[in-house]
Structure formats: C-alpha cells, structure tokens
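Q: How would the structure tokens look for this protein?
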Amino acid sequence: MPRSALRSTPITIDESLEAINDAFYEKGWTDGLPVVPPTAERIQRMLDYVRRGPSEVVAHLPPTDGEATIEKIAVNAVMAGCRPDYMPVLIAAVEAITEPRFNLNAIQATTNPVAPLTIINGPIRKELNVNCGSNALGQGWRANATIGRAIRLILVNVGGGLPGTVDKATLGMPGKYSFCVGEDEEESPWEPLHVERGLPGETSAVTTVGAAGTANVAASYSRARVILACVASAMGFVGSNNWPYGGEPLVILCPSHARILAKEGYTKEKLKLALYERTIRPASDFEPEYLEHMLARNKQVVNGKVTLVHKPEDFMVVVAGGPGGIHSTVLATFGETWAVTKPVARPA
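A: Here is the predicted structure in token form.
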C-alpha cells in the first residue's frame, strides 16, 4: 500500500518528544499521558499488517458520529503504544462498542464512571501475550495496557468523548485509561466466554462490557457456599447501577475459586442461578425514593423482594488471575448497556 494512501492531514511539530506531547495535550488528543508520535511510517506499519484500505469505515462513534476508519484506528493505536499485530483486536473492539445494544452514546456522556472493558478470548491471547494470569487487571503487560488505552484514545479522538465537556463522569475511575484482560481458558473448568456466547472455541474474539470499576472479593475458604456468599455480597451493594437498571454484572473468578466451585458441582448455569438467588434483597433495604427509582425502570417487587438482575443468565462469569490466590473480582456494570462479542478477523 503506497504512502500516498494515507488520508490524515500531516502536521509539523518541533522534533522533540516534549514539544510533540505538549502540542497533542493542548489540543485534547491524549489521555493525559505521553503518546507515541503517530508518524506516517508508524501508521503505515499498522495498515500493512491488516491489509485494509485506510479510508475503510469500520463504524461511526457517538456522540459526534465520528468515522472510525482503519487509518484513524491505526493512528490512535500508534499513540497508545500498540504493536501492528494488535490491530485486528482493536478493529473487533470498535465493532463491538458501536453495536446499538452496547449503548456507547450513553457511556460516552454519563456521570457514571463506566468504561468499556475488553475481554479477549481464543488463540490470539497467546499470540499477543495477553495477560490472563497474575495481575491480569494490573500493570506490566504491553498488550493489555496498550489495547485498552487505544480504545480510550479512539473514544476521545474519534467519538469526541472529551472529559469535562462530553464525558460528564463525576469521578471516573482508573479503567478509563485502559481496561483490557484475557480470560484464562486453560485454567477454567467451564467453557470460555466467547463459546458461551455462540462462537467456536478456536475463534479469537473480544467481548466488550460497560464496567463501572472493580471490587475485590477476598475469600480464603475451601467451601463453595462461603465463596458464593462473599461474591454475592460484593455484587449486591446498594448504590450499584445494577439495582435500578439490571444489566449484566461481571464476576472474574480466580482459578482456585473456580476449581472449588466446579468440584462441588457448579456449572456456569448453576453458579449464575446461585448468584441470582443470593443477591435478592428485601424491598425494605431500600429507601422509598430509591425503590421508586427502581420501579420506574422496570424492576419489580415480588413477595416484598427485589432481584439485582432480571434473570440468572444476565450474570457474566469468566476466569482469570494468578494461581493459588484467594482473590476474585466483581464488576458492577452500567446497567443500561449490554455486552457485545465479536470475532477477531485475521489479515488475509
């Protein structure tokens, strides 16, 4: 693909990295952190890897209806520090977050701290060295950090999600910088997320979730019922967006917790039913004004009780994290968004 195929308007800035980052920051093109200068050569390497035209439109991003072309995705991937072989994952993630059911327009503009969490499944996890194990939601892995960061930069630079103007998050949260994890399929006793959601196991896939942050579940116990009690308690806190809206709360179980649950006969279906039953709360736990808010958004009070989600299948469960740990994580979700899974298309 010739260099002339690039559609972006070139700009010339003093050659120093400091000057480039100062200029990008002043224009609102960054996440506040230094970026890799998106030179024509670096952008071209991204395009060469996927072998797709730079002006090809993958999706339109709200609220500005910005065109997420292959080239614009590549520009933001370079800025985030991505390798060229991360591009197929980014393209699939952009396709996922722009599905209507994901409700990106609301996520871009809400006061809630919600951010897209990208969960990666399939063989591409190993190929890109995506962290699925120890510190899977933390620092230290280029793929996790830069893929998640590139998505945020795309939301800002293509979708117009500038903080304080369009993005109205009251406090935000660290996941708004970068939020990406791989599922540890090899350590999971159950089928992986993308298979559960209808794709073949050998397919690489991304699932995007509108997540509002993490809550640690410390459960150093060897019985399933105690682990379930801890997880359900962490998920069912009053104030979670899932109470008024429902949605799809996410549980990331560490391998040791998953093994204990599976050993005691918990399939994913049985586990979700247990969480559904254990997160039911008496209507009297909620202030009248809060309860009225829930009822106005299609929640129901049955026999004086309220359920966190509309049905057991709404819970999402994946396995990730280090061996021998006692810590799992639960993530409340935006409630008004639904997870979307997309296959990762490999270059021709």
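The chain has 13 helices and twelve strands.

The radius of gyration is 21 Å.

Upvote if useful.
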